[in-house]
Amino acid sequence: MAIFFQICFVILSFSSFSHCLDNGLALSPPMGWLAWQRFRCNTDCVNDPKHCISERLFMEMADLLVSEGYAKAGYNLISLDDCWLDKVRDSDGRLKADPIRFPSGIPALSDYIHSRGLRFGIYEDYGNYTCAGYPGILNNMKLDAQTFADWKVDYVKLDGCYSFPSQMDKGYPEFGYYLNRTGRSMIYSCSWPFYQLVTKMEPDYATISKTCNLWRNFEDIQDSWQSVTSIIDYYGDNQDTLIPLAGPGHWNDPDMLIIGNFGLSYEQSRAQMCMWAIMASPLLMSVDLRTIRPEFKAILLNTEIIAVNQDPMGVQGRRVYKKQGIEIWTKPVLPKSGQRYSWAIVVLNRRVDGTPSQVTVPLRELGLDSSDGYHVRELNEHKDVGIISPDQAIQVDVNPSGVVMLKCTIIRVPPFTP
Ligand code: GLA
User: Fold this and answer.
1) What is the dihedral of CA 377, 379, 383, 385, to 10 degrees?
2) Which residue, judged by its Cα, is nearest atom 4 of ligand 1?
3) 45-64 burial, b if ≥16 CB within 10 A, otherwise e?
4) Distance of alpha carbon 119 from alpha carbon 341, whole angstroms
5) What's the pTM?
6) What value, to the nearest 5°, has the Cα angle with vertex 79 and ends 78 and 82?
7) Ligand 1 atom closest to Cα of 81?
8) Which residues are catalytic?
9) pLDDT (tens digit per residue) in 327-352
């Protein structure tokens, strides 16, 4: 880190703040728990102490992340979102948490989360205020980056309300530079392209993907299937732009997993999990882990699906078929055999006509052409389909607003030696 930082500093003397993020972090899509989608800006700890944004909430979620097996499955981050701050900075100009809701202070919360073996994330905003009206970092970037390092923050989500999208090309790299300059490794999550796209600006993705470990480019997820499918459509319709940006250390972020909340059915929850996995998306749950029903918990803890998401090659999946409500998405994964890959395939049924749709998955047409065949497994049901050669048809029944997810592991035949 220190060496990297010096190199970065030298480059900076000659150029802008860009091209400085090579922090070695987020080599696979980040996984963890974020407060926003489920708990929003509930600050009423008098009437709703269990659900308000308070240190108690984050400590309870940290405990459950560990005790319920989420951390073991890879969800290793607990992150604050908006509404953790006091409305004013302290007398030294430093950010501080709301003293009533975070009586022990952020350093104590950070220590607590670290003592559970987890990473600690924080939320701020590039503008004058956060989206909910708390102090932003504008004009205090250096101090705030240092404050986060002092608090042992591991992940920073930097929102973009109350700021000018036209200034973000300078501002986001500048804050990234100050984060790096602290010498503490912090994953940097940016909302930069989203705010620019809203104002019809063309995001400079080359710089964004060198500056941020992940970035939002579409609207906030809401607690509905309609919202989930609008995100899937955005990722499919813009895949030629988005896919090349993703890879180890830098990811498109389609926003949180809403599995286990109020808006998705069981099938739709499976669909969100499989789609986020195949899109190599960050897996950031936002759900009440104290009350989540077992069937939704099992979806979030499906280690075979998580493994596809976390595949070391880090290739974002592609929509290769879309017709009459049926979509097929594919993603190359390890292991390889020679130049050929294994593949994950999601068949997504957007239809609502009340009965499962039978879909034929044509391996060769999808680019799976290894004559030695593939060991095929369905990942939701954890069932082997068998050894399938490229010209054999796989028939799957896909439930309305549901998915089938196949992992096709290439069969590696040892080279023949006479
Ligand atoms: C924006 C972000 C959300 C959340 C809220 C908080 O809308 O996109 O993810 O952080 O702000 O106010």
Assistant:
1) -30
2) 36
3) beeeeebbbbbbbbbebbbb
4) 33
5) 0.95
6) 155
7) 10
8) 159, 220
9) 999 999 999 999 999 999 999 999 99
